Input
Amino acid sequence: MTSVSATDQQDPYANVTACCFSSSAVTNLFSLLLILSAAIFSCTASAEAITEQQPLSFGQFAITDNTIVSTMTIPYNGLPPSVTGNIIPITPGQAGHYLLSGFPAYVLFYITVTSSNLTKGGTGQPEPLVLDNFTHPTLTANANGEALLKLGARLSTTGNGVSYVDAPYSGTITITVSW
Amino acid sequence: MENSMLNRLAVAAAVANALAVSFPAMADTFNTTANVSSTITLTETTPLSFGNIFAVASTAGDGTEATMTVSTAGAVSVTAGSGDSTSDSRIVSLGGATAGELTVSGAATYTDLTVTSGAGLVNLVHSSGSPNAAIFTMDSITTSPATTTTGQTDGTGALTILVGGVIGASDTTTYSSGYLDGTYTGSYDVSVSY
Output
């Protein structure tokens, strides 16, 4: 054992790490801290989940002309969609609902969403429908560490004059939750 | 000092990891869908039919043809041929005429659709295909809603379009056989758009 010098004892960091250790002991402690924190993080992360309760969908609609950019916006709060340009809704879309669970109680969530374009059959073939402007309310976990994320978004046509084929279009969104 | 530095490193590592634990993140990926359906489905639920008729063709080709009209409401009227140097053409309705009915489905609800008709009229020819058998000329069709006007879909996205038409009896030197008993058929085009 190596004694801690007077200088070290006055060091405020020394009080935090407590006592005195040899170099190897401190190294071991350092490793232990890393392992413990990693283990804690790992255990915490494994309990968290994002579960889709209803998918984000833009429903069925007609695009009468693609010479201008047309949009359809699905609000996160269940209000009817709004459209601009040459999109005519036929059957309504819906906001996405995603249950966040397994999180610490009462934490404030920070949500970011990234997406791919929607393409015919999800195959990436043109003409794509562009997704952006994702919206959601401020979200805090309840006492059980859960919250329901309601997600709205805007869909846009390219406006380049190329017609859209009648077909189901699909793509993906990635929801990142931090807290 | 060495221990002090190591301690600081250990604390720094702990703080750094503590920060990482304080702001963890997780992500998951989900599907999103849309269904583009710009084409409107138009189905013939009742064919436009002139029913059973007695018809005489004129082979002089120098008069005015006889006509038969079926309105969009199904009312029938005829006009006699006239002015031929030999015998005038004639059409007599024997019953069974009906207006056509087309149904739009799957369109947007409560949305105005433009109806267009009149192009692509095809004459009515005998089922035998005989080149000597007289034909009926399909002079025009009428629709309700009228062509180039709009009709509004209902709460299910449906719209009914009624179709009437006018045919004329042959008044030409082309057909030597006159009219044959049997069915005469032709086609017409109606289109709808947003």
Remarks:
- Residues 1-27, 32-45 of chain A have pLDDT under 50 and may be disordered.
